[in-house]
What does this fold into?
Amino acid sequence: MNGTFFVLMRRLVVSDSGPEAWLHLLREAKLDHCVFTADKSYPESYAATLVDTAASAAGVTRAELLEAFGRFAAPELLREHPEFVQPGWNVLECIERTANAAQALMAGSDLVAAHLPDGELVITMALAADLCALAQGVLLGLGDHYGEVVHVVETGCGAKGDPGCTFAVRTGAMVANAAPEGWMHMIGAPVMSLN
It folds into this structure.
C-alpha cells in the first residue's frame, strides 16, 4: 500500500481528534513501531489493521470509515498535486482526466471513465479487496472540492464477482462550502475515543 494512504490517514485523524488520537490508534493497531512516509510502500495488512481499528473505535463499519477517509483524502490529493488538474475543469472533467491522482491513494487501481449521452459519467476501476467505499468517498470528496453535489451509485462490484467496480456519477446543483464540517460528519462519530 502506498505510503500516501497512511500519511493522509494520519492527517485526517490529527485534524479531527488531535495528535494523541493518532498515537493511540497506532498503539491499538499494534503499529506504533511504524513511521509512515509517502515515499514508501507498506504491507496492505497494515492499512487493513489501521482501518479496522479506527472503525471499531469510532463505532462505524469499515465501509463507512473508508468512505469518510476517501472524502477527506480527495481534496487533499488535489491540493498536493495541482499538476493533475486544469483551471476551469468541473468535477466530472476532473474525475475523467485524473486517473494518476487516484493512483496515489489506491495503488494498483485502473480507472476507466466514459461519458454517456445523458451527461452521466460511468467509471470502472479494478480495485483490490473491498475498496469500493474508498473509491466512492474519493468521488464525493472531488465534488466537495469543486463545490458540486455528486451523486454516486455503485452498479458493479469486483468483490461480488463483477469484472470491476463500476460507478455511475452525476452532478447536481452548485453549493457553497459543500464539504461537511469535520471529517466524520457523514457518519456522526469521532474517529477515536481516548478514554
